[in-house]
Structure formats: C-alpha cells, structure tokens
Amino acid sequence: MKKIKQNTEPFDTKRSIRNASGKVISIKRSTLSSDGKEYSWSNKMERVGVIRSGIPYDSIEVISRRLNNPVKSMLAIVGIPQTTYNKKKSEHLLLDSRDSELVILINELIDYGLEVFNNEEEKFQRWLKKPNLSIGGSTPENMLDTVTGINEVKFSLNRLEYGNLA
C-alpha cells in the first residue's frame, strides 16, 4: 500500500485574529412584555433570575396571541384552570417558577421558530399544527406542555434550519 503525503499548513494564529477582529458579536436578548412590564434576558443565568422572580399571569395571554391560539388552549398547556387564571390575572399576581419557565421557553421557541422560517409567521404557524415525523408523528404544538417537549421541538427546528429531516 502506498502512503500519500499530505502537505498541510500550520495554523496561522495571526490571520485568525485578523479575521476575527473585524467581526461584531451581537448578544441576542430575549424579551417578554406583559402586564406593562418588559422581562429581558440574554443568557441562562439571567433567565433563571426572571423565572425565579416570576412573570405575570397576563403573559399566558401574550403567548397565546403569539401562538395564534385561544387562551383556553394555552391554559391547558400550562395546566392552569380557567377560574384560577381569571382570579390571579385580575389580582396581577405572578406565575410560579414552573409555569414561568414553560411560558419563557415557549416564548424563546416562538422567537427561534420565526427566525428559522424567516419571520414568515403563517408558515411557522402551519408547521406548529402539522404532524411531524421527527417528533414521533405528533404536532409540535402538542409538545409544548413539558420542558423536554419544548426542547424536542427546538431540536426539530434546528434540524430544519440546517437541512435535515424535520
């Protein structure tokens, strides 16, 4: 067997630094506006802070509008009875950390989905409601009631963005 000698150049650190020096790094901030207040985070630790402090019950209505679903279906996803929601929303109370986390993750998922679909909201809405093989034949919308389900939908969007089966 004949060995083939490859001529590889050593890594040029100076060239790499020159290339990187002209690039502008932008940090993506996620936001959720609810009950007259804006909640904002740019990393997971800031997200944990927002989750622990809680977000208003009104944020469920914000997410339902973004998903183009009635509030009742969003309440089913989060697992809150309609009467509890009405009472706590009128008192301007905050969601507990579990429910805050679900709402925040769904908000981030919507932002990512719109980014993948080039801000074409109608296409993204259709994709959410259509059965998807990459998540076991379920619709992405039906997976939003757990953190694991939200992550699977996000992975599916990621595969779609990079041209894999989704």
Q: Which descriptors would you attach to this protein?
A:
single chain; 2 strands; two-stranded antiparallel ribbon; 166 residues
Structural commentary:
The protein is mainly α. It contains eight helices and two strands, in the order H-E-E-H-H-H-H-H-H-H. The protein has helices spanning 13-21, 44-53, 58-67, 71-78, 82-90, 97-116, 121-129, 147-161; strands spanning 30-34, 37-41. The protein has a two-stranded antiparallel ribbon. A hairpin with a 2-residue loop joins strand 1 and strand 2 (37-41). Helix 2 packs across helix 6 (97-116), helix 3 packs across helix 4 (71-78) and helix 3 packs parallel to helix 6 (97-116). The termini are far apart. The model has no long low-confidence stretch (mean pLDDT 89).
Strand content: 5-15%
Which runs of at least 5 residues are low in confidence (pLDDT < 50)? none
Q: What is the average per-residue confidence, as pLDDT, rounded to a whole number? A: 89
Helix content: 40-55%
Which structural class do you get from the secondary structure elements? mainly alpha
- Counting DSSP E segments of at least 2 residues, the number of strands comes to 2
The termini sit apart by: 43 Å
Order of helices and strands: HEEHHHHHHH
Tally of DSSP helical segments: 8
Q: Specify Rg, calculated over alpha carbons.
A: 21 Å
Largest sheet: 2 strands, antiparallel
Spatial shape: extended
Order of the strands making up the biggest sheet:
1-2
